[in-house]
């Protein structure tokens, strides 16, 4: 095995708070920081012991909504999967991902890991499952073969599967896209969402290999709710979340791969803010671990050549439209977060805060249309401009 740099010693922020905040203050601290204590789900003993045997964390929480007179509760369980890559980065693709040597798909390390986590999700009654960004790692994937195993899983467990992959678009010159495929619980492929904002930050030089996605802000109506997928770097762009929400998304998944030094202080804020601003549930999922590359690289930013991007800090969580959120999964371990939610909460919070009603989108639409014009002049007034305006008025008098 390659030496793995030591990183990510803190297991989770929440565990740290539990350990160090005086017990009499803990509930109040959680209320202020997290919008209260999320209800703990009672998960089946068999699922808990399987997760332990398979060496991954399993946590479960629930968000409730008030009973309504005209609508039944709309309860759905989502599963968020975060995982390390089980084998070193330079292991042959066929071993790490899958092998096409036989006509039947031979599932290898990464698939096996994901499948055993999906199996536990099924034991927990998960209806919709989503994996981390580009969970299968490689560019060479042939979309159809990759999808076959997930179509089978979706049908087997009656589960909607959101599988973020690296897509090679043979019809359009082999263009590479960073894509999430949405597979219905019936096994039908509902569609895909391509990453439409590509990072050019730190070692995430993705613009050198992916194109900016062109699938817009499609929302998928599933049996369990209206879902959307906003891949990683897209979460920094509030208009992205807004567009999904305008198209009716009730749950927006954000499969990610991001590292501590770059984004860890933004992580708890951005998706949670999006849930509040758009009256929906958001599900940010982050990769975990530190991945070592044999060949040192730089990103032309003055930094020394290095062998890893940094520590992927996991910490996947779910945020609710009322601003409350679950604790995060571990910063260092593979994990499955099972979250039950009543989708009625979206409209209940919307009726209370009315951000969509008070959003004045027509005003912003007009102003944005002006701002993107080449001859746009920013409306910025300083003292000099102000006195010039007054002088003009006085002079005219
Ligand atoms: N995968 C990816 O887009 N990472 C960029 C860093 C970030 O958005 O936090």
Automatic annotation (TrEMBL):
Pathway: Amino-acid biosynthesis; beta-alanine biosynthesis. GO terms for molecular function: beta-ureidopropionase activity. It catalyses: 3-(carbamoylamino)propanoate + H2O + 2 H(+) = beta-alanine + NH4(+) + CO2; 3-(carbamoylamino)-2-methylpropanoate + H2O + 2 H(+) = (R)-3-amino-2-methylpropanoate + NH4(+) + CO2. InterPro entries: Aliph_Amidase/BUP (IPR050345), C-N_Hydrolase (IPR003010), C-N_Hydrolase_sf (IPR036526). Residues 76-343 form the CN hydrolase domain. Coiled coil: none annotated. Pfam families: CN_hydrolase. Keywords: Hydrolase. GO terms for biological process: beta-alanine biosynthetic process via 3-ureidopropionate. Its EC number is 3.5.1.6. Belongs to the carbon-nitrogen hydrolase superfamily. BUP family. This is Beta-ureidopropionase. It comes from Callipepla squamata.
């Amino acid at each position: 095995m390659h030496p793995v740099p030591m990183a990510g010693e803190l297991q989770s922020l929440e565990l740290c708070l539990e350990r160090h905040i005086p017990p009499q203050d803990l509930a109040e601290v959680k209320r202020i920081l997290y919008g209260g204590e999320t209800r703990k789900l009672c998960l089946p003993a068999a699922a808990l012991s399987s997760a332990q045997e398979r060496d991954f964390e399993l946590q479960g929480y629930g968000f409730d909504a008030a009973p309504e007179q005209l609508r039944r509760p709309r309860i759905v369980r989502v599963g968020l999967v975060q995982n390390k890559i089980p084998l070193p980065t330079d292991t042959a693709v066929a071993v790490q991902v899958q092998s096409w040597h036989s006509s039947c798909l031979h599932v290898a390390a990464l698939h096996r890991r994901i499948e055993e986590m999906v199996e536990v999700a099924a034991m927990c009654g998960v209806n919709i499952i989503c994996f981390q960004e580009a969970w299968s790692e490689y560019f060479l994937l042939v979309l159809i073969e990759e999808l076959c195993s997930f179509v089978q899983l979706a049908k087997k467990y009656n589960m909607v599967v959101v599988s973020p992959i690296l897509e090679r678009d043979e019809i359009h010159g082999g263009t590479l896209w960073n894509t999430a495929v949405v597979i219905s619980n019936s096994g039908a492929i509902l569609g895909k969402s391509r990453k439409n904002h590509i990072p050019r930050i730190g070692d995430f030089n993705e613009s050198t290999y992916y194109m900016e996605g062109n699938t817009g802000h499609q929302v998928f109506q599933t049996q369990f709710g209206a879902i959307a997928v906003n891949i990683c770097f897209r979460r920094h762009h509030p208009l992205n979340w807004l567009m999904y929400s305008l198209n009716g998304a009730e749950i927006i998944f954000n499969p990610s791969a991001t590292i501590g030094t770059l984004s860890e202080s933004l992580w708890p804020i951005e998706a949670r803010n999006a849930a509040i601003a758009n009256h929906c549930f958001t599900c940010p999922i982050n990769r975990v671990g530190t991945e070592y590359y044999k060949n040192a690289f730089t990103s032309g930013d003055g930094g020394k050549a290095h062998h890893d991007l940094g520590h992927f800090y996991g910490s996947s969580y779910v945020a609710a439209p009322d601003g409350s959120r679950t604790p995060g999964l571990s910063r260092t371990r593979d994990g499955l977060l099972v979250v039950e939610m009543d989708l009625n909460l979206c409209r209940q919070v919307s009726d209370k805060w009315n951000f969509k009603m008070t959003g004045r989108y027509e005003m912003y639409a007009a102003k944005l249309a002006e701002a993107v014009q080449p001859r746009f002049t920013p409306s910025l007034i300083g003292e000099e401009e102000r006195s010039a305006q007054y002088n003009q008025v006085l002079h005219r008098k």
